[in-house]
């Protein structure tokens, strides 16, 4: 069985090998690629990176410690490249959707920060965009600017981490405010009782 590959796309040569390009107008939110039904295996991190060391570079992180790996070679959709200014994002774990309206001739790309969270992951970026980070890491999803920029386009497991961290941060901020106010009220109460001399 093959992965879904929109008929509005085609694989063409690009400056880093091959890429996927738009051949018909695409609307924001439109499904471009879906690897859910395609050939591939769910593998633990260690096993996935063994495949990569043997030359299989068609892997995508789908959960903490889990990857989707194309062990039988690439399909058309596997030629999607990274960019620090992507044109598509993730819907769920293995679906790619347009982040904006796309015109014929544009390359579809996604930011690996949308799926990759393994702490030692590192890739030298050659996207050439003005906003290029130069190095893409497994911690980039933690950057507040990227969380805002890609809200709704992270892999679901990363979005859950972001949401958990946001709630945790709000609880800590609230607790800190309550603590400061309590300290201030105690100081006023002590002063009122004459326990604090000026």
Brief description of this entry?
This protein is α+β, with helices and mostly antiparallel strands and 198 residues long. The chain contains three helices and 13 strands; from the N terminus they run E-E-E-E-E-H-E-E-E-E-E-E-E-E-H-H.
Description:
With 198 residues, the chain is α+β, with helices and mostly antiparallel strands. The chain has two domains: 4-38 and 75-154, Beta-clip-like (Beta Complex), CATH 2.170.270; 155-198. The chain contains three helices and 13 strands. The strands form four sheets. It has a four-stranded antiparallel beta sheet, with no helix packed on it. Strands 2-3-11-8 form a four-stranded mixed beta sheet, with no helix packed on it. Strands 5-7-6 form a three-stranded antiparallel beta sheet. The protein is elongated. The N and C termini lie far apart (81 Å).
Q: Name the overall outline.
A: elongated
- The proportion of residues in beta strands is 25-35%
Measure the end-to-end span.
81 Å
Rg, nearest Å? 23 Å
Strand order of the largest sheet: 1-4-10-9
Number of strand elements: 13
Share of residues in helices = 25-40%
CATH class of the largest domain: Mainly Beta
């Amino acid at each position: 069985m093959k992965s879904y590959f929109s008929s509005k796309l085609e694989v063409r040569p690009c400056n880093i090998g091959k890429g996927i390009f738009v051949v018909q107008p695409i609307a924001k939110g439109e499904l471009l690629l879906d690897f859910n039904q395609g050939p591939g295996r769910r593998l633990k991190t260690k096993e996935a990176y063994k495949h990569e060391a043997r030359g299989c570079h068609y892997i995508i992180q789908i959960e903490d410690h889990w990857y989707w790996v194309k062990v039988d070679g690439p399909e058309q959709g596997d030629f999607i490249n990274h960019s620090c200014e992507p044109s598509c994002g993730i819907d769920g774990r293995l679906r790619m959707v347009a982040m904006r309206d796309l015109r014929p001739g544009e390359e579809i790309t996604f930011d690996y920060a949308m799926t990759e969270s393994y702490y030692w992951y590192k890739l030298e970026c050659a996207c050439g965009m003005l906003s290029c980070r130069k190095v893409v890491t497994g911690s980039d999803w933690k950057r507040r600017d990227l969380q805002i920029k890609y809200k709704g386009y992270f892999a679901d497991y990363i979005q859950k981490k972001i949401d958990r961290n946001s709630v945790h941060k709000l609880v800590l901020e609230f607790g800190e405010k309550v603590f400061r106010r309590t300290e201030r009220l105690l100081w006023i109460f002590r002063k009122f009782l004459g326990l604090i001399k000026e």
